[in-house]
Amino acid sequence: MSARSSLLSLALVGCGHRGPPAPEADPAKVSALAAQLLDHMPVPVAVRECKPAELAAPVTLTFRTLRELGGQTVGKEPEQAEWVNPASLDTPAAHALLDAPDATAKRQAAATLLAAPAWIVYRVDLVNAPMALGIKELKTGTIGTRIIRYDRASTQPACVTVFNFQNSPDKTEWAISVSNKAFIDPAVAKVLRDDLAAQYVKLLPRGPR
Fold it and tell me: What span, in angstroms and rounded, lies between the C-alpha atoms of 155 and 39?
């Protein structure tokens, strides 16, 4: 089961709990909100740096998922690839809204997203990881990202934190040691992509719970 499918299952279980009916909202309002946030995507120097406590928010989304919510086509560039936008960084309700099989689950997911006072978007700006992309340039893969907190009510960015991470040293050393051909083995590239995704999830600053 993929990470995205697991998140959808988790969200649907939450939607199906017994008790008073869960709140519902129009999914189109989420699409409109996501589109507004995409229009207000800041550059790092345009907004103040986030304080540690501001790196926690009720809704967190990868840039890829934000584009999907906003009805925009996901680009083919590495920065928007699925592997470097791990589904586990997304609030489960986002995937319920995108993938749930019935309208009620989608409306409940929309209500969850719209009720949150703040959203955080994880945007990958740079994938400088040649071996992970199948290019034989023997160096450590580096990913550059921005963590952007939005005030949902105003749709304006409140703050931005720049966050960079790399392949783990052991995976890098292993990949270099086995890359003795004219090309990078696709299996080696996948190991490095999986490692970068794991480092992203592990090291990402999220603020106090």
Answer: 9
Residue whose pair of structure tokens reads 């939005």 in the numeric block: 150
Query: 35: Cβ–Cβ under 8 A, 6 or more apart, which residues?
Result: 70, 71, 72
Q: Residue 114: what residue type? A: L
| pLDDT given for residue 21 in this prediction | 79
Number of domains in the chain: 1
Q: Burial of 94 by CB count in 10 Å (0-12 exposed, 13-18 middle, 19+ buried)?
A: buried
Residue 82 C-alpha from the chain's centroid: 9
Do the domain assignments include residue 209? Answer: no
Is 69 within the bounds of a domain? yes
Instruction: List, in sequence order, every beta strand (DSSP E) within the chain.
Output: 59-62, 118-128, 142-151, 156-166
Residue 45, pLDDT > 80, answer no
Domain interval for residue 136? 3-15+22-203
Tell me the pLDDT tens digit for each residue of 101-155: 999 999 999 999 999 999 999 999 999 999 999 999 999 999 999 999 998 888 8
Q: How far apart are CA 79 and CA 39, in angstroms?
A: 18
Highest mean pLDDT among 13-27, 37-51, 136-150: 136-150
Report which secondary-structure segment, H or E, holds 139.
none
* 7 occurs within a structural domain: yes
